[in-house]
Amino acid sequence: MQLLFFIVRLSCRVRMISLFLSFFSLYLATLLMSLGTGLYNTFIALHLADQGVSQVWIGLLIAAFYTGQVLGARFGHKLVQRVGHIRAYAISAAMVTVLVLAQTITPLLPIWVFLRFLTGATMVTQYMVLESWLNDQADQKQRGSVFAFYMVMSGLGLVFGQMTVSFFSPEDLTTLNVVAMSMALCLIPVAITRRSHPVLQLHAPIKLKVFIRLVPMSMFVLFVAGSITGSFYGLGPVYASKEGMNTDQVAVFLSVSVMAGLLSQWPMGWLSDRIYRLNMIRFNALLLGLLTIPFYGYWHLPYSVMLVMVAIFGVLQFTIYPLATAFANEHVDPSLRVGLSGVLLMTYGVGASLGPLLVGKLMDIGGAPMFYIYTSLAAFSLVIFVRKEKVKGTYKVDPEPLYPCRLTCRLLRWQRRWIRVSMNRLIFHLTNKPWKKYWILSRPATRLLS
């Protein structure tokens, strides 16, 4: 029985590796892009805090980035429809590289706001391409796992980006050159991929009213999740600095939260393929709202305790986005998925734009504890308003089947052969009879386990 249990576990692991390798080029592009984004946003916040800039200005710069994503989604959708996924991604990555480098020319904050706006407006196309590509070619039963791997690579890039900020001085603008290099490198995996891009749908416009009718709960969840996450990335470094942390401690504070969210993506994705996703969203939000109460400012927490708590916060807050996105994709026609990806990113961006502005103003008035007071209230709003009875629309058409790459096929063949031989050895061990007699009996088990 131990051998059989080992075979089952190995089969599951091989399936996960095969699934990961099937989309490896897209995952690698996500990693490189997120690395640059993590370093970019963290450095901007620390640089402005070091310069003594008001928290409202910091919130405005973060909000400009996400506002650009909101308004750029429609343009990105039209660009994808006109030139295809790969060309649209390449154009956007080149523009982001130029805009990041342009910030090293001038220190004027109004110009930075404009450049950050344009950066968000162009980068949203990259996210639209990657997410619609993954959702289009993922099997319905594997969508949670496919998107979990996407969030893992995204979170891993953000962690690396936030950790590398400790190697640079906050006042040195040449750090933005490293950001630009990362944004340029993310072009390579998509440019050389052998995976076929999704078929362009002629009738997939971004119509907000259509998606409000089809997936209202997902849009509300993404709006709130955007406000929480945008506030964390924009004002999390400011909160940590206000609590007396140095630059290294701020980097660890942020990275621990993102890393915890990263490590929880696959388990959450696995669970979401088996448990109703809205129930998981409500449970995550309830825990997040309750566990942030000790950060209201009435108690002084040691640094080690804060790290443990923010790790738990990362698990809860960073898994809301993939859960809501996977839930939304189950309730729309495949021809609408590019448009859905744009609308979801727009909704997320609206929340991420308003969140830092509101939290920055609250922190100016009430101090650093307002950061987590807002997080708690936003989480409780999900618990109150997200209901199964409000879900509308049904999934209409089965998604496209998953076509594995050559290496994946070899792994699957090796997996089946190894399972077949192991099952025959197990049968021989249990019966003490020639294994060839039971050769045919192992084939159904092979199909079942592989």
TrEMBL record:
GO terms for molecular function: transmembrane transporter activity. Gene3D superfamilies: MFS general substrate transporter like domains (1.20.1250.20). Residues 22-393 form the Major facilitator superfamily (MFS) profile domain. It comes from the Bacteria. InterPro entries: MFS (IPR011701), MFS_dom (IPR020846), MFS_trans_sf (IPR036259), MFS_YcaD-like (IPR047200). GO terms for cellular component: plasma membrane. Keywords: Membrane, Transmembrane, Transmembrane helix. The keyword rRNA processing does not apply. The chain crosses the membrane at residues 12-36, 56-76, 88-105, 111-134, 146-168, 174-193, 214-235, 250-271, 283-299, 305-324, 336-359, 365-386. The keyword Transmembrane applies. This is Membrane transport protein. It comes from Advenella kashmirensis (strain DSM 17095 / LMG 22695 / WT001) (Tetrathiobacter kashmirensis).
